[in-house]
């Protein structure tokens, strides 16, 4: 497998032949199975939110933050669905993982799921580009291996969605069996589906999965686990990032600018130096003339 050649191909937003994609997925699974549910990461590192198949904006993200190899990255899930190039985006990130296994960490989001990708575009995209569902199957098998969380210098937790009433300690995340489809309820589900809300405790989520969790819940979790910050993604933020509860101990990071090519938002990444100083870098969508836009069936946007 010539990974450099594959990266060259993928960087042009061209997807791989099916047999090469299958090989790549097998190789990535071998790497991911070695990672913990809560993978330890050392600073300096750059933390990224949802990218949702917006391939040209992922290239812009790397222009903003620096190339993988020079910079360590954590992506907090939701690589696929909604954008025009879910296949190329996820394949490119997998190829970077093979080339630089210790430099890029890919967490699981709620869209890294068989059920969700059959509704929100990735399944249809694979079918349209390859003419059969096997490439989708190879990728969704990789989803089952993606880790659930990262912990930076033992003090900053990264997770796609949020907290769970079933999880009080980080050790409880370590005990989850992640090698499966995202379940409909329980701790695993909550980690990829929950959202912070301006409340004190817990509330039912309008998403139909996960929970809304408040300031008191966040403060207690951070105190019990000696955390200074929780980084999460999962919700569009017009200004690219947002702290919750008027404090600076939980931040939502969003990395898909002009989301779904119509939302008008900017995107951000969080650059943490070796002293964990926080530098949020804002970036905008690549202009239309610098991206190709294929004809595409409209997909539901909010989930």
TrEMBL record:
Q: Look up the domain of life of the source.
A: Eukaryota
The Serine/threonine specific protein phosphatases domain is annotated at 107-112
> What is catalyzed by this enzyme?
O-phospho-L-threonyl-[protein] + H2O = L-threonyl-[protein] + phosphate
**Gene Ontology molecular function, alphabetical:** metal ion binding; protein serine/threonine phosphatase activity
SUPFAM superfamilies on file:
Metallo-dependent phosphatases (SSF56300)
Q: Which SMART domains does this one have?
A: PP2Ac
* Keyword annotations: Hydrolase, Manganese, Metal-binding, Protein phosphatase
- The answer to whether the entry has keyword Metal-binding is yes
EC number in record: 3.1.3.16
Quote any Pfam family the record assigns.
Metallophos
Query: What is stated as this protein's family in its record?
Result: Belongs to the PPP phosphatase family.
Q: Give the protein's recorded name.
A: Serine/threonine-protein phosphatase
């Amino acid at each position: 497998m010539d990974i450099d050649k594959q990266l060259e191909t993928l960087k042009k937003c061209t997807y791989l032949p099916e047999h090469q994609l299958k090989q790549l997925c097998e190789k990535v699974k071998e790497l991911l199975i070695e990672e913990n549910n809560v993978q330890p990461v050392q600073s300096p590192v750059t933390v990224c939110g949802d990218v949702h198949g917006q391939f040209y904006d992922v290239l812009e993200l790397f222009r903003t933050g620096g190339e993988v190899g020079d910079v360590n990255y954590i992506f907090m899930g939701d690589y696929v669905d909604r954008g025009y190039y879910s296949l190329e985006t996820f394949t490119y990130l997998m190829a970077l993982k093979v080339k630089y296994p210790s430099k890029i960490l890919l967490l699981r989001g709620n869209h890294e799921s068989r059920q969700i990708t059959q509704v929100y575009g990735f399944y249809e995209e694979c079918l349209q580009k390859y003419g059969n569902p096997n490439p989708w199957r190879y990728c969704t098998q990789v989803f089952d291996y993606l880790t659930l969380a990262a912990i930076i210098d033992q003090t900053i937790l990264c997770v796609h969605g949020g907290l769970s009433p079933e999880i009080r300690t980080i050790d409880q995340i370590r005990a989850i069996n992640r090698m499966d489809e995202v379940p409909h309820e329980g701790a695993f589900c909550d980690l990829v589906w929950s959202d912070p809300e301006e409340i004190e405790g817990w509330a039912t989520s309008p998403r139909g999965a996960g929970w809304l969790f408040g300031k008191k819940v966040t403060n207690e979790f951070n105190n019990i686990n000696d955390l200074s910050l929780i980084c999460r993604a999962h919700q569009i933020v017009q200004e690219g990032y947002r702290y919750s509860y008027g404090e600076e101990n939980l931040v939502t990071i969003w990395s898909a600018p002009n989301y779904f090519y119509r939302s008008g938002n900017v995107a951000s990444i969080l650059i943490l130096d070796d002293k964990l100083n926080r530098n949020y870098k804002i970036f905008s969508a690549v202009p239309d003339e610098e991206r190709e836009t294929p004809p595409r069936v409209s997909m539901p946007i909010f989930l």
